[in-house]
Amino acid sequence: MTTSAANGLSEIERQRQANIAEQNALLKELQLGQSGSFANVGTPKASSANKSKKKAPPKRVKEEDSPAPRRQSSRLQGLSADSEVAKRKADDHYEAAKEAERAKRVRRTGSFNQNDMFIAGQKLSGDSLIGTDVIVKGVAEPYIRTFGDDDIEKTTDKELKALREEMNGLELWDKWDPQRIKITPERVYTMTFHPSEAKPLIFAGDKMGHLGILDASQDKVETKTEDEDEDQEDPDPELTTLKIHTRTISSMMVNPSKPMTLYTASYDSSIRELDLEKLVSLETYGPESTNIDEAISAIDMAPTDPNVLYWTTLNGGFGSYDVRTSKDTASSWQLSEKKIGGFTICPSSPNYFSTASLDRFLRVWDIRKLSRKEPVPVAEHESRLSVSHAAFNAAGQIATSSYDDTLKIYDLGAKGLSSWSKGHTLDDADFRPDTVVRHNCQTGRWVTILRPQWQLNPQSHIQKFCIGNMNRFVDVYSAGGDQLAQLGGDGITAVPAVAVFHRSKNWVAGGTASGKLCLWM
């Protein structure tokens, strides 16, 4: 009798137990290994030929076009036919929603009438908007003033002191609390006043393509009766909100020679004109295809020519177009390899314009000497960090804001700008800021970039511009860098980052990231 038989086990049973013991030992060995998986079990060693092959780089997919998770076989997932039908319906719904979202951002090229643009519940009364009368750096400390009455009292220059007193005498529009003047649904990106002096009419564009309009000459409408509670809140101001672009409205203007037309530019690659009497919006300029992305960063027009539009793009381009001709006659130049954030035409010498770009340069150009192959600027100056805006005034001075926390002023008028001949250039040594002012420009992600804006036709010979202050004020400076005012008031709970002057009246407006308006008059 064999040993196995003596132990009461057959040869087959003994072999089975031996196999089990061997498998358990192998499992323990695998669990203690470094790989922690069965990925390498049974895999032959790679040959030298395989080792020499480079691994293919992963395919780059745009974030907005990222595919949905890969579908698996219903059989592998254990799904019934009914579940497959439901999944197909879900996939169809997802694709439809994705296409609808994409369609929202595509430029609309047609004409809009009032019913196409009005946002429900926000419309000015009446048939027409115009009618017939036509130095802090670093972290901001909210509400901490850096300029006040003491600075005015110390002023020895009589004319400067008088202007400081006048500008600091501007008062916040008190008919409504600023928290109740929501001029746009989303963050304000750009604003302008209508040039009319008859009444303050303010336009604001936001990040989603809405245009908000406020007539600040309106009075409160008394709706209370004797039986109503005295504490009942007054109605909000009358506003008009129009949806005229599919993406951010980046710039807007009213040419004084064409006061019934508001031009708006957008990241949706289009420039539109809004008839302020008929409230009809038409596309003035746009690429030949809606699939072409040429996001427009700024527009401007020479004050003496209401027919030629000029613009810059986020791709570093510059363009011009005569609205009396067909769109295919538009001209374009590549002036920068990086984004041009802002530009302006010199009002008194419209052959010259300035650009501010992400490559840290302020540049001045002569429209008459632009070459498409290799455009050469009249002058350029490099800052330590990117330049946000370059604003020309009628005296030939340029004010810039930069992420190096400075406001720089370049006086080209004093260098004979008005008498320059075609082809005139300046050396780097001759083109440096005449004045540098410390100013906190660290807006972060949620606040619109701070940009200086001149009063184009000031009532005194002292040129002045305004710019938002991260401490929740609007600062006013002279061309010599002297601070003239720091505008604030009760009810301002956010940074009025987008600040603009009326072209001739001492009216200043500021727009916030929540779409609220602050107005000083």
TrEMBL record:
Q: Which GO terms describe its biological process?
A: DNA damage response; regulation of DNA damage checkpoint
Query: What terms describe the molecular function in GO for this protein?
Result: DNA binding
Keyword annotations from UniProtKB, A to Z: DNA damage, DNA-binding, Repeat, WD repeat
SUPFAM superfamilies assigned to the protein according to its UniProt record, in alphabetical order: WD40 repeat-like
* Comp. bias regions, Basic and acidic residues: 84-103
Q: Which family does it belong to?
A: Belongs to the WD repeat DDB2/WDR76 family.
Stretches of Acidic residues bias are at 225-237
Function description: DNA-binding protein that binds to both single- and double-stranded DNA. Binds preferentially to UV-damaged DNA. May be involved in DNA-metabolic processes.
For this protein, the record's InterPro entries field holds: WD40/YVTN_repeat-like_dom_sf, WD40_repeat_dom_sf, WD40_rpt, WD_repeat_DNA-damage-binding
Q: Which organism is the protein's source?
A: Penicillium angulare
Provide the residue span(s) of the region labelled Disordered.
34-108, 219-238
- Protein name per the record: DNA damage-binding protein CMR1
GO cellular component annotations of the record: nucleus
